[in-house]
Amino acid sequence: MSPAAVLSQPKVGELPEWRRWAPAVIAALAFALLFWDPMRTLVRDWWNDPEAGHGLLLGPLALFLAWKKGLAEERRSQPLLGAAILLGAVLLRYLSGAAAELFTMRMSLMFALFGLVVYAWGFGQLRRWWLSAALLVLAVPLPAVILTTLAFPLQLQASEIGAALLEARYVPVVLAGNVIHLPGGHSLFVTEACSGLRSLTALVSLGVLIGGLWLGSPFTRILLLALTVPVAILINGFRVFLTGFLVFHVSPELGEGFMHMSEGWAMFVIAFLVLGGMAWVLVQLEGAVRRRFA
Asked: Under 8 Å CB-to-CB from 243, ≥6 apart: which residues?
């Protein structure tokens, strides 16, 4: 037997290369088989549904941040806990599949991913990847019934803020629910798409991301996350005001089409800058507290 053949033989007690990789390959195939439908429908909605489009950014970003954070040096596998989480995820997958409920079916996919992490590297590794886990959960679109329930109060709030700002600028308006009647027979109908729910979802995700990357205290992270809600509501109310102001003083055509969409993007950029400014202030406060008690 040649020396090369001797070297290629496994040592006594050592498993061949293919047998070491076989469990991981079988687990990956089983995972793909069990959770293919949740993965497929989730990516489909990310691509096709404007309310879920932020998932196209959050999903890859979560994976990148997990890779950047890396594995903990003192990681320890917890197979029993991981197997329990995986079993719960599989049960949830089939119960939600039988009920045709997409949200819980997709959440079962996330729980399965978390269970695999715990099984392989322990719960401490999942805590190390908490930001990635939070972004993955936020990437799952909310159920339609929750979206509808949240959208209508936001529509009314945006209409009230917009009408109040228009009156402050001496534009006579009549507010009827989510409809703002302007002089000259023009009306602004604050639809569900203009409720600000889409920007609120995106800003909440940004708040979690900025807090996780910039802030070190759980208190300031939660505070920043709480501030995203009034920021999103006020910015969307200002967008309604701006639309009504342009319709009244310039042209009714500015209340729809490309200009209306451009206003939405511009308001989101402003909201992002406001959120970044708040995060900067909180970073300074954290630094001042550390210096005070150092």
From this structure: 162, 188, 254, 255, 260, 263
Question: Which two three-digit tokens encode residue 248?
Answer: 């009244």
For residue 75, give both structure tokens.
């990681």
Sheet holding 174-176, edge to edge: 174-176, 179-181, 187-189
Cut 0.70: pTM above it? yes
What dihedral do alpha carbons 244, 249, 250, 255 form, nearest 10°? 10
257 contacts 226 by C-beta, under 8 angstroms: no
For residue 69, count other CB atoms closer than 10 A to its CB: 14
What's the CA dihedral at 72, 78, 84, 86 to 10 degrees? 40
Distance CA 123, CA 149 (A): 35
Strand partners, 176: 179
pLDDT digits (tens, 9 = 90+) for 277-293: 999 999 999 888 888 88
Token pair belonging to 47:
């691509």
